[in-house]
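Recombinase XerD
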Amino acid sequence: MTVEPIRNKAKIKQMYYYLNGKDQKYGLLFKFGLNTGLRISDILPLKVKDIYTVDNRFREYLILKEKKTDKEKKIKINDSLKKEIENYVKTHNLLQGDYLFPSKKGGHIGRVQSYRILREAAEAVGIENFGTHSLRKTWGYWTYKMSSYNIGLIMDTFNHSSQRITLRYIGVNQDQKDELYSLVQF
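Predicted structure tokens:
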């Protein structure tokens, strides 16, 4: 099974409401992935201090070292995500050293747990071919569309070595092939 981006904005909204209803941290996790394009393994260990300065202002950038590539990543958090984080941190009275996505067992929730919850939500709202990479792919897919098809910038953000890899990764090639099959009809 190839994991796909979520191409339907209504389904994105439904999935968010499902997850947020289950636990606010899962709603935030979903939004975090959709708004940053980060891998789930880079999102889960984040702490409040990674996002906020000691005087409780948003940092200009979220700066982290990617687990997979060991490369430094610098992300400007958008207003939609800032609002979500602010609400979440206030509601849960989180402190600088607290994980954004705490586990009941201590530490932060793991990849398997996050996959299970996200997958359950995807199935509940009828999204097929979903995996944790779907969040990253969804960010890439919608950013590609909204940026007037600036594949070079997305390729660079994902650290891909070719445009072909990025287009395949975000599922654009499949979209284009699907369109071809509807062009010619006998």
